[in-house]
Amino acid sequence: EAGVTQFPSHSVIEKGQTVTLRCDPISGHDNLYWYRRVMGKEIKFLLHFVKESKQDESGMPNNRFLAERTGGTYSTLKVQPAELEDSGVYFCASSPMDFYNEQFFGPGTRLTVL
Amino acid sequence: AQSVTQLDSHVSVSEGTPVLLRCNYSSSYSPSLFWYVQHPNKGLQLLLKYTSAATLVKGINGFEAEFKKSETSFHLTKPSAHMSDAAEYFCVVSEIGRVIFGKGTRLHILP
């Protein structure tokens, strides 16, 4: 069974540009989560999808971040325009059930904004 | 409010000696607690979880953790470290639909 995959693995962009990160969850997992780890800090929750609906997006830092999950399969996280403080590793996770159960994590996308 | 404190950012042990990674938490409810491990260039992998059943939880690769409510702790242990255990470890609290990560402890194994 394929695990959670994320694309790209690395992205280096200039401040002001747009970047789109993609996450493919494990097939059949209704729950999809995005997290971010800024260098030297803890991993922080960004948002949670149940199928195609946003269950909780309280962790999204500001309106430059837009997450979508059309059709309840893969998800994208767009940053527009990117700022220096957006640099970090963005993790995606999926699970068949809710927060009280194991989440399966992807390897992350390392975003560097110059 | 929830919080998770991993008391050590780095821990170094010799191969074959015991491992102790410390985690304290605060929670208003009855949380679920997890330990995840991240090896370089890999995703986070679940080591073990506590969800209000037995207080001593056994995980993969010989790791275990004990939930101590009176001490609000969930320390991770392993009797004998192996070189392959070198990685970063995260203590995680989950309650009422919210997940909080500790800052991580990087475990170094000395030959």
Describe the protein in words:
- The complex is a heterodimer of chains A (114) and B (111).
- Chain A has strands spanning 5-7, 10-13, 19-24, 31-37, 43-50, 53-56, 65-68, 75-79, 88-95, 104-105, 109-113.
- Chain A is mostly beta strands.
- In chain A, strands 2, 4, 5, 6, 9, 10 and 11 form a seven-stranded mixed β-sheet that branches. In chain A, strands 1-3-8-7 form a four-stranded antiparallel β-sheet, with no helix packed on it.
- In chain A, β7 and β8 (75-79) form a beta hairpin.
- The model of chain A has no long low-confidence stretch (mean pLDDT 92).
- By secondary structure, chain B is mainly β.
- Chain B has strands at 3-6, 10-14, 19-21, 23-26, 32-38, 44-50, 56-58, 64-68, 73-78, 87-95, 98-101, 105-110.
- In chain B, the strands form three sheets. In chain B, strands 2, 5, 6, 10, 11 and 12 form a six-stranded mixed β-sheet that branches. A four-stranded antiparallel β-sheet of chain B has the order 3-9-8-7, with no helix packed on it.
- In chain B, a hairpin with a 5-residue loop joins β5 (32-38) and β6 (44-50).
- The N and C termini of chain B lie far apart (41 Å).
- The interface between A and B is medium-sized, with 25 and 23 residues.
